[in-house]
Amino acid sequence: MTKQDLMDIIVKVAPGSPLREGVDYILDAGIGALIIIGYDDEVEMVRDGGFLIDCDYTPERIFELSKMDGAIILNDDCSKILYANVHVQPDNSYSTTESGTRHRTAERAAKHLKREVVAISERKKNVTLYKGNLKYRLKNFDELNIEVGQVLKTLESYRHVLNRSLDSLTILELDDLVTVLDVANTLQRFEMVRRISEEITRYLLELGTRGRLVNMQVSELIWDLDEEEESFLKDYIDNGTDTDSVRRYLHSLSDSELLEIENVVVALGYSKSSSVFDNKIAAKGYRVLEKISKLTKKDIEKIVNTYRDISEIQEVTDEDLSAIKISRFKIKALRAGINRLKFTIEMQR
After folding, report:
1. What is the pLDDT of residues 76-86, one digit of tens each?
2. Confidence (pTM)
3. Residue 72 pLDDT exceeds 70
4. What pLDDT sits at residue 273?
5. Ranges for all domains in the chain classified under CATH 3.40.1700.10
6. Residue 1 — pLDDT band, cuts 50, 70, 90?
7. Using alpha carbons only, how large is the chain's radius of gyration in Å?
8. Which CATH code for domain 3-138?
9. Does 105 show up as a binding residue in the annotation?
10. Which of 89, 140, 224, 294 has a CA positioned 20 to 30 A from the CA of residue 38?
């Protein structure tokens, strides 16, 4: 099962969802339950006894039906209660690490049916989600708040480090002093921020409607991340290289592999050797030029395709830029924009 499978399950039982409301009723009453989501021929084969309900789902109905010992079967989108008080008999050849009868049955049923199964423990007062080989225990609100706060602080810290790295890189680009190591360090930080933001996304799904404020904070921290990374990659990878392939390679690295800067250097098309760290490398100019609001994407492509790098772009005359159909107004905006960018970064240091 993939991370997406986990997220799909969490969404169904997130605070604010009808199913979660029913689950909370069951938890508050101190009773347990086993809920299978979805129905097909495989489910019918493991179903023994019980009785047909076939009514619209409501939190109150599932709570009342959970007072009986058997499992409850819902349809795929949890809009209907199909069966109640069902005895579930999954294939015993499927292994389980659980101890309680309800949770052992839930884990085996999830593996057998490849469907989402929710087990609610009356003794421990917790909720465990299963699907295939995936198992995940939902955290309570207090636990989630603590963990989300920690991850959010980490995201804020890493985003600050990335911003400082980008500012330093901008000055180096304009002074034509960038090395492969400078670029690799920045790319590594992009990926770190992305991984932390993906981790916090899972917490936000689990918080459901209670996570709106945190969601706003996260959105503020990463709103420009994709565009910034795209222009950064276009600056430094070969024209024939797809930026998505670079991202896929970085995503494939484990956390420990990502910390080895040689692995990040490979993503830029260099050999996995520290000997290339000090090699000089020039930015094409996408990222800097995109910060000048008066320039359109067409203008930027025209400039980047005509001149070698951002250092050369700074040196060209107004006549040179006019020759490639850049208006005087935009040329003035380009000059002022680069000077303002330098000044702003130096003031922030």
Report:
1. 999 999 999 99
2. 0.82
3. yes
4. 81
5. 3-138
6. low
7. 28
8. 3.40.1700.10
9. yes
10. 140
Burial class for 223, CB neighbours closer than 10 Å (0-12, 13-18, 19+)? exposed
Check whether 344 is labelled as a binding-site residue.
no
Query: Do residues 174 and 41 lie in contact, with contact meaning Cβ atoms separated by under 8 Å?
Result: no
Q: How confident is the model over 230-258, as pLDDT tens digits?
A: 999 999 998 778 899 999 999 999 999 99
Q: Is 16 annotated as a binding residue?
A: no
Say if CB 4 and CB 99 are below 8 A apart: no
- 């309570």: which residue's tokens? 140
Comma-separated ranges of CATH 1.20.1260.110 domains in the chain: 142-276
pLDDT at 2 exceeding the cut of 70: no
Helix (H, G, I), strand (E, B) or coil at 54: strand
- CB within 8 Å of 116: residues ≥ 6 apart: 8, 9, 12, 36, 37, 38, 110, 129, 130, 131
**SS3 state of residue 198:** helix
**Residue 88 annotated as binding site:** yes
CB atoms within 10 A of CB 51: 10
Q: Which two tokens stand for residue 225?
A: 């991340």
Do the annotations mark residue 102 as ligand-binding?
A: yes
Question: Is pLDDT of 215 > 70?
Answer: yes
Q: How far apart are the C-alpha atoms of 124 and 51, rounded to whole Å?
A: 28
104 labeled binding residue: yes
Q: What is the DSSP letter of 280?
A: B
Query: Nearest Cα to 281, choosing from 305, 265, 261?
Result: 265
Report whether 304 belongs to an annotated binding site. no
CA 296 vs CA 107, 173, 245, 334: distances in Å: 56, 21, 26, 11
Hey, what CATH class is 142-276 in?
mainly alpha
